[in-house]
Amino acid sequence: MKFNSSDIRPDKNINAESSLIGTAVTSVEGSYTVLLDNSERTEAVPRGVFRHDGTTLLVGDRVKIEPAGESGGKAVIVEVLPRGTELIRPPVSNVDRLLIMTAAARPRPLQLTADKLLSIAEHNGIEPVIIISKADLAPKRAEEMAELYRKVGYTVFVTSGVGSAGAGADGAAELKKWLTENPKVITAFAGVSGVGKSTLLHALFPQYEPRRGAVGRQGRGRHTTREVTLHKIGKRKDISDGRGPYEFLADTPGFSLIDLRRFDFFELSDLPYTFRDFLPYLPECRYTDCRHLRDEDCAVLAAVAEGKIAASRHESYKAMYEELESKNPY
Fold first, then answer.
1. Class of CATH domain 268-325
2. More exposed terminus of the chain, fewer Cβ within 10 Å: N or C?
3. Residue 188 DSSP class
4. Contact 223, 214 (CB under 8 A)
5. CATH 2.160.10.10 is the classification of domain 5-83
6. Which of 18-32, 182-196, 281-295 has the highest mean pLDDT?
7. Which CATH class is domain 87-251?
8. Using an 8 Å Cβ cutoff, are 94 and 60 in contact?
9. How many C-beta atoms lie closer than 10 Å to residue 115's C-beta?
10. What's the whole-model pTM score?
């Protein structure tokens, strides 16, 4: 069941004057660390009514809490403010920008995973940015990947290993400058294990101390970060939108599979509209229910044949279509 924070009614017994507002920055076994707008951190647990309603709070939620009493214990989360966005995997709310990281090598690039993340971001109104890491290990492949997504219209950064002098060695510095010049309230990182996410985070924000993992013999990351955590990276100048005084970086767990059959990211009918490169051609298809697979007079297929849409992007579309089509509606 998709959680709608507008369905949560604040407890009438709560003293509004004594409640405080903050952002949930991490969660462990049902307890949340909340960074209050007054800069204090507190541990808080959701009021029981949330559990009875079957709702789940997410890291990134803006919440109201009732402070712990003089007898001790934890503060209580009494209200969740309306969410702007919601991601199921990685589980985080109110994300404004999603940095999608994929490696040019070790582990091998997985375009389908990157394209799934792009579709999820597009569907949720989140700004996606592509980061291609380890360019020094496969410079030609890295540039081909960057060109593919730049043609679609995405912002792309190419980075290399720390201390390398290969292609993209200055990518981390360029990315840091761009993030500074284009601030968002919550920016999230996503990518498969082993692509160098924690390493790049440390390069961007030296004060950040990630838990590191190794890349095994199969080229897959192991012993990597498991919990979603928001790290405060700056203060906002304009807080009139009610989203608090801080900018956050969301460190999200590495994962290698986004199962469209298992999770309700979006419906099959939404899929074509999550491909930015398809949008100019969708109105030109002969049939309104065109699947863009083998359909007659399909403008999307014509664009693929003419090289206006990359064949590899259409392959990702077909794979995602098959996953969603085979999804059990029950």
1. mainly alpha
2. C
3. E
4. yes
5. no
6. 281-295
7. alpha beta
8. yes
9. 24
10. 0.83
